[in-house]
Amino acid sequence: MAKHADPFNPTPASASGPVVPAPSIAILPAPTAELAAAVTGGGGVVEPLSDTTVGVVLADAVGAAELEKVLDEHPGIRWIQLYLAGVDQYEHLMRANRAREWTSGKGAFGQPVGEFALTLTLAIMRGIPVFPSSRGRSAGGRRGERPCTAEMWSWSAPGVSAPKSCGCCRHSPTTSLWSGRTTGRCPERTVTDDGLDEALAGADVVILAAAMTGGTEHLIDARRLALLRPEAFLVNISRGPMVDTEALVTALAGGKLAGAALDVTDPQPLPEGHPLWAEPRALITPHTAETPDMVAPLLAARVQENVRRFSAGQPLDGKVDVDEGY
């Protein structure tokens, strides 16, 4: 009996069998030249949403309600490629669509985000917030009291590594917390969630690069801020709600923390007149750890590889664990 191709697994039934059509992939909200080339380069074909659509690639922000409607109207969709590493906005939708495969950009943006984490770390340790040009007032205060040989701790999802981006480390972390030095040595130890409090007490720099989930909201709260030494620095390149903003304001104002560099805040953006704007120990950037120009080729490479894997029936890269939320 002849074997028939599975439309959701476009691998030919046999070498001598009929050629299976390339998977139909829709790019939302609209195709871009770079992503269209990535889809075709991976062996797929870019087409508008239809009954034959088996995959969806998000090129930009698409609301959860809008995406839910797309999935409801097109039951043949088996794979959704999200455009960012963070997927918290689609959490309920993913849990309602467990039969479908969800992939994100996690790991794909490690280099630009890691570089920016180091940039913020150096800036806050060198006292950039108090330089005249950074706040439009006279110079004063600390200006880098020690060289950057500090031990760095990063609460991060696997594949996010600040030291790796500058060549200091050849390995990405495999668990939640790692430590290393910026002087070219690989991380000295890796600990799990249970070791966080102890690690914070000895850290010089804490870099937050975790996924935003229910378990990481206010990960750094008043209690954990109190564990840090007054000479320690906090860098957040993940999500604003990971830090209790009110507790951070209190810690900075009371000199309980040497400084905080924040690419993300809670709320975001900070309202005019918020205490953090006037805090000399705070350095705030507008969620610019990666730029569209940096992300576009990285996302395209992820899409091309995943289309190739999807076409071959292989495991997809950056697959989201729906239960864990990242």
TrEMBL record:
SUPFAM superfamilies: NAD(P)-binding Rossmann-fold domains
Keywords: NAD, Oxidoreductase
GO terms of molecular function: NAD binding; oxidoreductase activity
Location of the D-isomer specific 2-hydroxyacid dehydrogenase NAD-binding domain: 188-289
UniProt keyword Magnesium, yes or no: no
Pfam families xref list: 2-Hacid_dh_C
Protein name: Hydroxyacid dehydrogenase
Lineage: Bacteria, Bacillati, Actinomycetota, Actinomycetes, Micrococcales
